[in-house]
Amino acid sequence: MGAHGKRGSRTGVASALALLALAAALALAACGGSDTAATTSPSTAPSEVAASPSASPSGIPLPAPTVTGTIVFAHVLSSDQGLEDADICVVEADGTGLKTLAGGYEWQEFPSWSPDGTKIVYDAGYSPDIRYTQVCVVNADGSGKVELTEDSGYLPDWSPDGKRIVFVRYVGVAGDVTPQEDIFVMNADGTGERCLVDLKGSDSRPVWAKTGEIFFLHGEALYSVNPDGSGLRRIKQPGGVENFAISADGKMLAYHSYHDKERVVALPLRGAGKRVTLLEPASDYILDDETVALGWTRDGKALVVAGGSGGTIHGSRVYVVNADGTGLSAVPGIETALDPAWQPE
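RE: above sequence
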């Protein structure tokens, strides 16, 4: 998260430099396990081959997903003036049914489905600057858009019962040496807002697991906390991680590391177990001036992967890969997506 710039920027408070040691410790958590690569990386550089609806930016041929379902994402759109906007859109995994659900601001981002799949919470503002961003909710058919926050709010995620929303708020002031971002919780209608975590520095990217725990990044480490603010504990040491996702059952962790051979990997959240490589190198699929955003299907059998906020935030194709590293595919026709999430069944 950038305190005065683009959300998720590598120069922001949740930058990879602040998290240089997390990938190494995550690898130790998976001691004894071996990596399973999703595909063999080509030697062609991403910029040398024009992308097509059935290929990655580096020219890797990819089939359309065989699984069915609806994916929500932020769709980056370029204007005639060379500026970029982003709307909240949905598309079927086979590339059909593309529809814009939320616009009106210059920048909409970080969509998250309600557990019953009927609503989408997201953040919106007139730029990617976190100081001017609010948490909004919209029905899955695009109706009933409501702004939930009056102060800054971003990176929202639903509670497992759909009654509450966790989000991040920038509470620092201009000129702060260490910008302050705190974790907040509110009711799904925007009432009852309260601060949940206010550790010094950056608390960002909250994920509310089905177990009830809320996972988040604090500076250099992955933490979890109970919804009432109790039970704060550090789960993993830091290590170059800019984005992560927890499976709905709270058992599996997926993350992208700049320093672990540009891999996107999945491994057990707690204890030892096999680590599976989902994308390697990630820059063959998502341009290396972007972060990588990823999310689990509700059954934990696959992940949806695309670009994330950071760098030049142009967006990427939407990829689907099985949790065992097999079956890598790409949603046809989508080339500039950010922050994808799979609709619950």
